């Protein structure tokens, strides 16, 4: 369920017409970039990493981190200057594991480690490069994923999340990290092999539109919107101005496109894998087929449902109509639950297992994983 609450901007200053962004730079931001000028002071529209360094963001994260139990681990991805790291330790988080590769930041974090030796664990990895890490593991070159999760117990899927990942994502990391999560989650692979792991993340306005858009807004609604809602319980918590994160964005604003996007704020969301995820379909391995079904059919959201599915299984239209599918329904008109129901009806057809659809799924899966069984 996607929920939102009233946004509080607190003491954040609003830019006046004609005011230069640099004139409104918050003293907290200035103090941090003066300590790490080579890394953080340069403005950029497309940074590799974005760092939460201002109290407006840090206090919000600390307030909402809420470990599910005393045994639960908090992972902080790319802590950078360690502003949140210090705040979490001071708040009494019993087990905090941070992932940082940049040497100057690692050195600063090691000073915190001296103050909190039993609470803080430093791992010299970029957790947000999980796709690359998992790929190298699959080829047998490394075992880096298991190192990220060392000491984390394997728990039944319905248990409370065993790890909470906290971080701020640049657009580059959203595309690689979040898409990878959507890829491995239905397989219960990579980090999800240990059980449910949830995420407390600042994301861009663009990703926010994908996560929250519904079938009432065909311009913004995407296949990825359907996958997010089927795979995760989603909570939208708050938003914080982008100019309170480092590196600062450029003074010019992105050109508007056809989809209205809030580029001025980052949105704090909690993504928790659904406890009933592997009960949506029988057998649960069919989730991979569901992903392919959604991705293929949401490419053209204005396509009519019946003609589209008859390309996979000729003559299936009357049977689907008998099951309740409306004749003039378009793919983009379907809610996530309706899309799931449509797939359940489609996959229950007698021709399904021998259809070109299954052949296409198998072909794609084998391109990604040669060990995937052939038809």
UniProtKB/TrEMBL annotation:
UniProt binding sites for S-adenosyl-L-methionine: 100, 126
Pfam family membership, one: RrnaAD
Superkingdom of origin: Eukaryota
InterPro entries per record: KsgA/Erm, SAM-dependent_MTases_sf
Record key words, sorted: Methyltransferase, Mitochondrion, RNA-binding, rRNA processing, S-adenosyl-L-methionine, Transcription, Transcription regulation, Transferase, Transit peptide
Major site of localization recorded for this protein: mitochondrion
Subcellular localization(s) per the UniProt record: Mitochondrion
Enzyme Commission identifier(s): 2.1.1.-
GO MF term set: mitochondrial transcription factor activity; RNA binding; rRNA (adenine-N6,N6-)-dimethyltransferase activity
GO CC annotation, single: mitochondrial matrix
PROSITE patterns, alphabetized: SAM_RNA_A_N6_MT
Broadest EC class assigned to this enzyme: transferase
Gene Ontology BP annotations: transcription initiation at mitochondrial promoter
Family per similarity comment: Belongs to the class I-like SAM-binding methyltransferase superfamily. rRNA adenine N(6)-methyltransferase family.
Protein name (Swiss-Prot/TrEMBL): rRNA adenine N(6)-methyltransferase
Organism: Ornithodoros turicata
């Amino acid at each position: 369920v996607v929920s939102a609450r009233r946004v509080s901007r607190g003491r954040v200053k609003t830019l006046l017409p004609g005011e230069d962004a640099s004139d409104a730079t918050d003293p907290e931001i200035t103090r941090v970039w003066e300590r790490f000028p080579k890394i953080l002071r340069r403005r950029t529209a497309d940074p590799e990493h974005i760092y939460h360094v201002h109290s407006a963001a840090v206090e919000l994260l600390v307030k909402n981190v809420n470990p599910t139990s005393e045994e639960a681990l908090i992972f902080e991805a790319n802590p950078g200057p360690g502003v949140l790291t210090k705040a979490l330790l001071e708040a009494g988080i019993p087990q905090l594991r941070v992932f940082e590769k940049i040497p100057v930041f690692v050195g600063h974090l090691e000073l915190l480690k001296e103050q909190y030796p039993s609470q803080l664990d430093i791992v010299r990895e970029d957790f947000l490069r999980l796709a690359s890490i998992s790929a190298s593991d699959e080829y047998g070159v490394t075992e880096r994923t298991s190192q990220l999760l060392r000491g984390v117990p394997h728990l039944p899927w319905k248990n409370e999340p065993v790890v909470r990942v906290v971080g701020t994502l640049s657009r580059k990391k959203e595309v690689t990290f979040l898409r990878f999560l959507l890829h491995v989650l239905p397989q219960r692979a990579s980090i999800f092999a240990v059980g449910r792991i949830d995420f407390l993340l600042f994301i861009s306005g663009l990703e926010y539109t994908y996560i929250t858009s519904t079938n009432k807004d065909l311009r913004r609604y995407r296949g990825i919107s359907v996958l997010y809602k089927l795979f995760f319980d989603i909570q939208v918590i708050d938003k914080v101005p982008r100019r309170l994160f480092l590196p600062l964005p450029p003074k010019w604003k992105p050109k508007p496109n056809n989809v209205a996007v809030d580029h001025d704020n980052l949105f704090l969301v909690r993504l928790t894998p659904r406890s009933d995820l592997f009960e949506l379909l029988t057998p649960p391995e069919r989730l991979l087929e569901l992903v392919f079904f959604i991705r293929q059919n949401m490419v053209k959201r204005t396509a009519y449902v019946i003609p589209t599915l008859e390309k996979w299984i000729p003559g299936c239209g009357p049977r689907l109509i008998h099951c309740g599918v409306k004749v003039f329904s378009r793919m983009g008109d379907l809610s996530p639950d309706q899309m799931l129901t449509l797939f359940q009806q489609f996959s229950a057809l007698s021709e399904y297992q021998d259809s070109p659809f299954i052949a296409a799924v198998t072909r794609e899966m084998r391109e990604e994983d040669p060990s995937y069984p052939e038809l």
